[in-house]
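Researcher: Next entry: Spermatosis associated 17 (Equus caballus).
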Amino acid sequence: MREAMATLARLQARSKAVGQQYYFRNSVVDVFRKKENDAAVKIQNWFRGCRVRAYIRHLHRAAIIVQKWWRSYLSRQHYQLVVKLAYYTMKMNLYNEMAVRIQRRWRGYKIRKYCFDYFYLKEYLRAVTETNDAIRDALEEFAEMKEREEKKAALEREEKKRDYQARKMHYLLSTKQIPGIYNSPFRKDPDPWELRLQKAKPLTHQRPRVKQKHSISLTSWLACTSNRSFPRSEILPPINRKQCQGPFRDIAEVLEQRYKPLEPTLREAEPINELKEAREDLRRQEWIRNVNDNMFLPFSSYHKNEKYVPSMHSSSKYGPNSYGCQRFRDENPKKWICPKEKETRSNMDHKNKGQVNTSLIFM
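Model: Predicted structure:
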């Protein structure tokens, strides 16, 4: 007990020194502990880095092996495809060359056999020549036949015309008492027309058909525009006697010429305001054409020495002709503000030319 107490007394006596020693030792241990910790961290960092780099190198080697095998597989596939394409190209080139040879041989044979065969072409040209000769002969025969037919038709028309003329001039036939104009006593043989007149029959005129009576208006009867405006007798029945010889005209034609409608005189046919209408028409035409007697050149001295000749329709020696209307550019001395006696002669001439030109423009 005493020893324990003595030990406790010693410890209490030494407690302050023990506390200081503990604090000193702990502070020294903390400094070395941080240094050791940093050293341990560095060692662990280096070890872990070596391990990770070794693992990454292992992964790189494995990936390179995988890529090498895959790329070799793709290369082999591509090479096989290239070989197939080359083989197919070579085969197609060979086939094309063989086909070209066959076509060349066949086309040469065809051209030599059918197109440029000398004997065949000679035979063909001979056949074409014979056919052309036959067609030409047929066309010449046809043309001669058509020409003969046309000549025959022309002769027939001429003969009919002469027969009709003979029938029309049948009254010139010779009689026992009086010889005709074609049977002169001074000729040994009669004229051919005399023989034709003897063979021909006299031309008989057909009587006009009697038209049905139609009503004539009072206006047409008073204006004498109808053939039946004047009273006429009924057409008598034909007399059974021989018709007189001679080229007599038809009675309807004679009556139509005899009772022609009245024609108005020139004074009645033309309107009373013909002159006014003509002037209006002339004004419209000049307005459309926009005719000027002289070109207006204000900045040119070429026309200064020329004398202005006014138009006959726009002015006269008695003054301008207004054609029934007042122009807005005409001068009116009653409306002048001041007299214009100071104007020179050249200005007056230029002004008169401008007035005439404007009057022609606005007509």
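Model: Note for the record: The helical segments are 2-115, 118-168, 192-199, 218-223, 251-258, 266-269, 274-289, 345-362.
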